[in-house]
Amino acid sequence: MPEGLNAWRLLKGAGVKYVKFVIVDIFGRPKLEILPIDAARDAFVDGIAYDGSSIPAYTTVNKSDFVAQVDTNAIYIETWSGGKTALAFTSTLDGNKPHPMDPRNALKQVVEYAKSRGYEARFGAEVEFFIVRGNPPSLVDNGAYFEGYPLKETMPVIEEIIEQFYLSGIGFTKTHHEVAPSQFEVNIPAADPVQVADQILVFKILAKSVAQKYGLTATFMPKPFWGVNGSGMHIHVSLWRDGANLFASYKEPTPELKSAVAGVLENALANSVFVAPLVNSYKRLVPHHEAPTRVVWGLGNRSAMVRIPYYAQKINRFEYRHPDPSANPYLAFSAILLSAVDGLERKLEAPRPVEEIAYDLQGVRETPKHLGEAAKLATEGITAKMLPQQLVKAYLSLKEREWNDYLANAGGSWDATWNVITRWEYDQYLEVA
């Protein structure tokens, strides 16, 4: 029996009434084709036919008949809406080949490239977000980091999110209140990068849906409030060979870990537009709010761009703190993995790990000042060279347009608005980031 048909029968037998076929756009946002379960049968075998010209930057109207093939290993039940609907991720085809504009295809190809060099990647993600009310948003609680007292409005939302996180098939997780009021963090368990990228999207759909039930908004906008911590999406990375973790050690980082970190740091500025993709992202990347501004690394140092978790002096991964939760996870993961493998293949030497608070360091590279600068730097790194050129060109063009649109609506000046959150940002990002 074809895998697709078997998956369809399992869903129908489980009482699923509707299937949402997920097509990932260039920004990493889900686009959906919704079919009743009986009508979805053929789609699980033959794919979903759709108008590719209506997905941003995918194609032109004269070449717009696309087919998205279902990935039977990436199906999740929307338990938060009663379990009657399933999310089925797809990959778009160009004839019989993966379409180069589909970012999910791009990450799959990067993962396969890493495997061809002998590396199996495992990624995990710490996703931070705010629960807010209205637009412009207002804070819903005044909790602090690891808040222990009951939070009247946000705690019921978080408890339901965590319950549905497991029931929907993502796995086990943990959560806590983050540093800023109304801010929380949820962990996506470490696994294959494509699986984790899918699960980030499922989690965002879940969190937004549950918050809406309470009349609130779960926002993944990086910096919705000035003067408090923004939201990051810290990515934990390990690379394996023949079943052994190349980064596992005690007290001292392995040579492989150092080279991988060196590759990530070397490409950090060029990768910024892929991991911190919004105008608003660069209002998060400011000193003294636990967001990195200096391109350095350190053991247990949360002010550094790359932190080596160092609990009881045990090492098994690196944490890349540059990304935020608005990033397209498929492109962000591609950038991180390509950079780490590049460092390993070239046996790059890492600079000394910093013990100081990184914000105080002088004479080291700093994150781009704004999105316009980040977009210009992208062509200097390995990501822009290794990903499909059609995809890179379209992505950077859209980011340049986004930057220019911001300037046009913010009086033409970054210097006058870098430390305020504008109405334009709320309208563009609050609900869809």
- Percentage of residues in strands: 15-25%
Name given to the CATH architecture of the largest domain: 2-Layer Sandwich
Low-confidence sequence ranges: none
Helix count equals 13
How many strands?
18
Cα end-to-end separation? 39 Å
Topology, pairings included?
Blueprint (H helix, E strand, L loop, with lengths): L2 H11 L4 E7 L5 E7 L4 H6 L1 E4 L13 E13 L7 E10 L2 E2 L4 H14 L3 E14 L4 E2 L15 H13 L7 E3 L5 E9 L1 H21 L3 E3 L13 E9 L2 E2 L3 E2 L4 H12 L1 H8 L5 H4 L12 E3 L6 E3 L5 E2 L2 E3 L8 H18 L24 H7 L4 H5 L2 H21 L13 H7 L4
Parallel strand pairs: 1-5, 15-16
Antiparallel strand pairs: 1-2, 3-4, 4-5, 5-6, 7-8, 7-10, 7-11, 7-12, 9-10, 12-13, 12-18, 14-17, 16-18
